[in-house]
Amino acid sequence: KKIIIDEDWKSQVEAEREAAARAKEAASVEKAAGAESQADAMVWPEPSLPLLVTTLATQAMAAMGLIPNQGAQITRDLPQAKHFIDTIGLLEEKTKGNCSAEEADMFENVLYELRMAFVAVKEKK
After folding, report:
1. Residue 32 belongs to what domain range?
2. What's the pLDDT tens digit per position in 41-70?
3. Which terminus of the chain is more exposed, N or C, with fewer CB under 10 A?
4. For residue 13, what pLDDT is reported?
5. How many Å apart are CA 40 and CA 32, to the nearest integer?
C-alpha cells in the first residue's frame, strides 16, 4: 500500500501543529492568570498586634524545632529562636500602656510559654 503525501496534507499537518502550539500557549497563559487571580482572591487577615505576635511566636517555635519547616524537617536554631522571643519581649515593652488587657495577657502568656519551651529545648541539647 502506497502512502501519497500531497501539499494539502502537509499544510493540514502544519496547521494542526500551529493550532496545538497556540492552544498550549493559551493554556499556560490561562494557568498563569488563574494563579494570579487565585493569589488576588486569597483573603488575608487584618493586620493586628495579636497576628504579629502569633507570627513571631510561630517562627520562634519553628526555630526551636517544635514544628517542622516547609520541607517537613525538624531543625533547631536556638540563637534565631532567642531573637524571635526577644523581639516579642521588645514589642511588649514598647507597647506597654497602649495595649488592651487582652493584648497584655497575650504577651505575658506567649512569652512565658516560649521561654519555658526554649529552656526545655536547650536542656535537651
Report:
1. 1-43
2. 788 889 999 999 999 999 999 999 988 777
3. N
4. 64
5. 12
Residue 31 has pLDDT above 80, yes or no: no
More confident residue, 54 or 6: 54
Alpha carbon distances (Å) from 60 to 55, 114, 123: 9, 8, 17
Rounded to the nearest 5 degrees, what angle is found at the Cα of 82, between the Cα atoms of 81 and 88?
A: 95
| 32 lies in the same domain as 83 | no
**Whole-Å CA distances, 39 to 25, 34, 55:** 21, 9, 20
Residues 3 and 34 placed together within one structural domain of the fold: yes
Q: What's the mean pLDDT in 65-86? A: 87
Looking at the fold, whether 111 and 63 belong to one and the same domain comes out as yes
All 3 cell numbers of residue 85? 522571643
How would you label 12-38 residue by residue, b for 16+ Cβ within 10 Å and e otherwise? eeeeeeeeeeeeeeeeeeeeeeeeeee
For residues 65 and 121, the answer to whether their CB atoms sit within 8 Å is: yes
